[in-house]
Amino acid sequence: MRTLEDSRLTVDDLIAWLVRFDDEIVEQAGFLTELDSAIGDADHGTNMARGTAAVRVRLTETPSGDAGAVLKSVGMALVSTVGGASGSLYGTLFLEMAKSVGTASELDTAVFADAFRAGVAGVVARGRAEPGDKTMIDALQPSVEALSAAASDGVPLAESLQSAAAAAAAGRDATIPLVARKGRASYLGDRSADHLDPGATSAAILVQALADSHAERTR
Amino acid sequence: MRTLEDSRLTVDDLIAWLVRFDDEIVEQAGFLTELDSAIGDADHGTNMARGTAAVRVRLTETPSGDAGAVLKSVGMALVSTVGGASGSLYGTLFLEMAKSVGTASELDTAVFADAFRAGVAGVVARGRAEPGDKTMIDALQPSVEALSAAASDGVPLAESLQSAAAAAAAGRDATIPLVARKGRASYLGDRSADHLDPGATSAAILVQALADSHAERTR
Amino acid sequence: MKKLINSPATVLADALRGVEAAHPDVSVDYANRVVSRGADVKQGRVALISGGGSGHEPLHSGFVGLGMLDAACAGEVFTSPTPDQMLAATTAVDAGAGVLYIVKNYTGDVLNFEMAAELAAAEGIEVKSVLVADDVAVEDSTWTAGRRGTGTTVLVEKIAGAAAEEGRDLAAVHEIATRVSENGRSMGVALTSATVPAVGKPSFDLPDDEIEMGVGIHGEPGRKRVSLRPASEIAEELVSSILADLDFSGAPVIALLSGLGGTPLIELYLMYGEVAALLEQRGITVARALVGDYITSLDMAGCSLTLLRADEEMLRLWDAPVNTAALRWGV
Amino acid sequence: MKKLINSPATVLADALRGVEAAHPDVSVDYANRVVSRGADVKQGRVALISGGGSGHEPLHSGFVGLGMLDAACAGEVFTSPTPDQMLAATTAVDAGAGVLYIVKNYTGDVLNFEMAAELAAAEGIEVKSVLVADDVAVEDSTWTAGRRGTGTTVLVEKIAGAAAEEGRDLAAVHEIATRVSENGRSMGVALTSATVPAVGKPSFDLPDDEIEMGVGIHGEPGRKRVSLRPASEIAEELVSSILADLDFSGAPVIALLSGLGGTPLIELYLMYGEVAALLEQRGITVARALVGDYITSLDMAGCSLTLLRADEEMLRLWDAPVNTAALRWGV
Ligand SMILES: Nc1ncnc2c1ncn2[C@@H]1O[C@H](COP(=O)(O)OP(=O)(O)O)[C@@H](O)[C@H]1O
Ligand SMILES: Nc1ncnc2c1ncn2[C@@H]1O[C@H](COP(=O)(O)OP(=O)(O)O)[C@@H](O)[C@H]1O
Ligand SMILES: [Mg+2]
Ligand SMILES: [Mg+2]
Ligand SMILES: [Mg+2]
Ligand SMILES: [Mg+2]
Asked: Residues in domain DhaL (chains A, B) (predicted)?
């Protein structure tokens, strides 16, 4: 067990994050699918659960390597198992993070923040969604900003991750009133308002899982 | 208006009978179809209503001719519009009655009883059902016997027709406990018991319509 | 009741307009509700006619065309057509070599085709009939109106149609039709009831967790009502019921897995996968297979399995060209 | 939920077994969920690949074969397949002349096919994509992910498939595919919701007296929810919405009236009769028509209408031989 002063994410931390992400997704799959029933095609929970299960298997059953290798393997697993819009987008998030971190074996707040930013930029580039389009970007982008700000303010890692998670959650909630302009929900027009976006919800779960798994491991 | 002593069915009486049959079928179509839902294919009321409507049109919109011609025209109309098992059977009933009465223009009790017997014999020959098979025969055969008995006992026509109708009704009710051995209901096996047979029910309506229309016209 | 119709009374007439519009090759006699091959009736060839209640589409009108039926008579929904319809079809397609009636064994169809045959005979047209009674779900056929005619009808129409197209005479076409009829067996399963338009509600109630094994194509009940179960177990019951009824060993089989109208193709393929595996386990070789909606029961969810113990001649006739709305190959 | 399945998790794998069993001509790569033409890939010919979420059968696997697709990638139910599936299909069918991806415009399909194209390019395979976005129910396409791809996909696959079969090069096949895509328009109507197996209940609630006009093939909502009405009025709305979007005058039209999976053929023919009458009233000539289940949405009741403003070349390619599970003629 490490102390609170720990300010780096190790490869094991990344693995713990994604195992926890899988736990949360398993638990929330029904809820995510319900959200997707309301404004999509009722598969987001099933899609994500299929993906995180595959990620877990890959991470826990094969030797891990450096941070870049781990993140790439996560991205590949997501791309090849989730399907749908979210599969390529979450896959891109991790593949771009992998490129950003390269062969590092530990990531400090700033390096991780940069990687996260690169990942989200990849999602934007692939999906062409802008903030306010009622997509996962609405949770991811504020989360990136919060994490970068924390990093440049020298905030400790644990706290930085908590503020990234809080920003993601706030971004997620802010999708409720929005009218979707990307993804299936956009076909609903005005009827897409007053609903949480499923992808923003899973994105908030992703960031929260990191904050929580890190907190647990450094408790 | 004729008196109760009237002991012959005229061509107009036959027409009045079938118009009244149509009235009754229209009213009972839902019920007949419901009976057919339980042990058949949910079309007996619709079938009969289509047929009696066609009969009514033919009888009321074209010149009538002798009794044989009227009964033949009824039979042809039923054969060509009812469809299903009941169409050919009711059609046969009237076509055989037509043959039996020939060119007569009035039928006394005995002649009508013979014609009715010939008609029902035709139904049996075509459908190969025996009494107890839970079909229209279970209403028609006792009705024939009652009418013949009344005729040979010299019972007045009105009363004879009422006893024929009563026998048909009793025969109809007696189908309830029976297990069907002919028609679609037979596929139900034991599950066909405890249900009225739709065809026996429409057959009882047919005979009752004759008794009632005759009673009304001679009141 | 939610249906794409104008009114229950006009369903059949309105649907026939669509058939004619979609298939310029066939011609529709609206007064008699007869769908027949247009111009291509060949002088001197035996003609094939079938018919029955509507609601089983593509049976029968979808099988009118080269190598299959010459005419189909459409009754009201689930109600057999009438003798005058059949007679009109008969006089329309008879080319002097006689006519084969392909009749599904339901009292209404049997009686009406019988009357039609009498009328045709009176007009000097030679008619023979083949009765299809292939539904193994009806066990006590001595105590019933006999087995119902279901999926084997499609196979009789195809194979006898090819025989007629070859120019065989009526006796020979009747012979092969009878042989197919006698060697075909079917059984169906319903997950839901059909809703007859004129009735407006389901013909029977089936609880959310029950299915009807051995259902007929009009929703007539079958052997038993059982709990909803995996497709593999349903397939096992269909296959073993059929195999218990006729020895299929040592002969090539033509298999037809038909939807009942409300079941999507993905489920039909899934069921066929189970059926194929079971047959393989039992050493039975499927020589030809059809999966899709071929004989349906309005909007009923479920499927029926038909297996034909075929011989070389049947396979050859099966493979012969056919050009109809619902079955087409070789042309 | 009542379905002929073993378990929601195995629907796709189990159904693929049935596809392979029923159609010995195609081969199934289970690991990659790719259905492809078996042996008959012709060296040097452009290959066509499509794919998408499952639950739309016969789209796409039912259109693999001579004159149409070389391979179909099956995603989970209503979920686009993944780039690795597409790449596997690409390397399997590429014959050196390049590959055309036929992509329905859904974010998931678009993004995954994009990634696949990048991967294929990295392996030195030339890929072009055609996007089908034909659903006129999506009005404000600037403010959405764009129009959805529906029935025109079937027509693109058929016509581009015939062009590839003729030996045209990738640019030419892409050109005609694009032309078909741009000249096709569709709109659908749902009477009931589909039920996704993994979800177990209908994706949306539709009261007994309401229908969804302009529904998507995954049950995405359409223009509006209206009261249940006669087929003639529904047809009028579908036809006029399509005609308002593109000028169809003076050109032959290919019409596709597809069921959504839970609607019986008799209703589809009835609807097509209404559509044909409306088009005739407006002086539009239907040159070719298809009525049946071609692009479905699991067990959803309803239908979709697709009209293609065709030209002589499209008609000629339409009539070219095709031999697939769901579309076959000329061979
Ligand atoms: N263009 C896009 N950019 C970013 N996120 C998107 C985009 N399109 C959709 N999404 C996200 O994907 C989520 C839906 O994912 P999922 O249901 O798994 O895929 P699909 O929509 O293909 O069924 C949406 O809630 C939204 O957050
Ligand atoms: N072989 C038969 N002989 C006499 N009556 C029969 C026979 N088969 C059926 N019926 C009668 O026909 C009735 C059903 O008629 P109907 O529903 O109109 O025809 P279908 O059974 O063809 O749908 C049954 O209730 C029964 O009384
Ligand atoms: Mg979704
Ligand atoms: Mg009935
Ligand atoms: Mg009937
Ligand atoms: Mg999806």
From this structure: 12-212
> Tokens 């299909």 map to which residue?
D89
Domain range D11-179, its CATH number among 3.40.640.10, 2.60.40.10, 3.40.50.10440, 2.40.40.20: 3.40.50.10440
D203 in contact with A, Cβ within 8 Å: yes
CB pairs under 8 A between B and C: 114
Please give the structure tokens belonging to residue D89.
Answer: 């299909």
In this predicted model, what pLDDT tens digit does every residue of C105-137 receive, in sequence order?
999 999 999 999 999 999 999 999 999 999 999
pLDDT digits (tens, 9 = 90+) for B125-172: 999 999 999 999 999 999 999 999 999 999 999 999 999 999 999 999
- A2 within some domain: no
> Does the residue B26 lie in any domain?
yes
CATH class of the domain whose range is D184-319: alpha beta
Assign residue B149 a region: left if phi > 0, alpha if psi is -120 to 50, beta otherwise?
A: alpha
Return the ligand number nearest the Cα of B37.
4
**Structural domain includes residue A97:** yes
Q: Which residues line ligand 2 (CB under 6 A)?
A: B 36, 40-41, 43-44, 47, 84-86, 89, 127-129, 135-137, 182-184, 197-200; C 79-80, 107-108
Q: What is the pLDDT of residue B188?
A: 84
CATH, residue B186: 1.25.40.340
Of D75, D112, D221, nearest to A188 by CB-CB distance is D221
Share the mean pLDDT of chain D: 95
Q: What is the DSSP letter of D257?
A: E
C-alpha of C124 from chain center: 28
Q: What is the largest CA-CA distance in chain A?
A: 50
DSSP H stretches of helix in chain D: 11-22, 83-93, 107-122, 152-165, 170-183, 231-245, 265-281, 312-319
- Using left for φ > 0, alpha for ψ between -120 and 50, and beta otherwise, residue D298 falls in left
Domain count, chain A: 1
Q: CB of C301 within 8 Å of any CB in chain D? A: yes
Test B83 with C53 for CB contact under 8 angstroms. Answer: yes
If chain A, 219 residues long, is cut into consecutive pieces of 10 residues, what is the mean pLDDT of each piece?
A: 69 97 98 92 93 96 90 96 96 97 94 98 96 97 98 95 98 97 88 95 98 91
Interatomic CA distance for residues D37 and A175, integer angstroms = 45
d(CA D271, CA B37): 28
Tell me: pLDDT of D24 over 80.
yes
Pick from C230, C241, C7, C228: which is nearest to C137 by CA? C241
Every domain of chain C with CATH number 3.30.1180.20 lies at 184-319
How many Å apart are CA C154 and CA C145, to the nearest integer? 21
CA of C269 to the centre of ligand 1 (A): 30
Q: What domain range is A61 assigned to?
A: 8-217
Give the distance from residue C271's alpha carbon to the nearest chain D alpha carbon, in angstroms: 7
3-state secondary structure of D276: helix
Tokens of C288: 């030809």
What residues have CB less than 8 Å from B184, skipping those under 6 apart?
Answer: B39, B40, B41, B85, C106, C107, C145, C216, C218, C220
Q: Whose CA is nearest to atom 9 of ligand 2?
A: B183
Whether residue A1 lies inside any domain: the answer is no
Euclidean distance between CA atoms A25 and A17, whole angstroms: 12
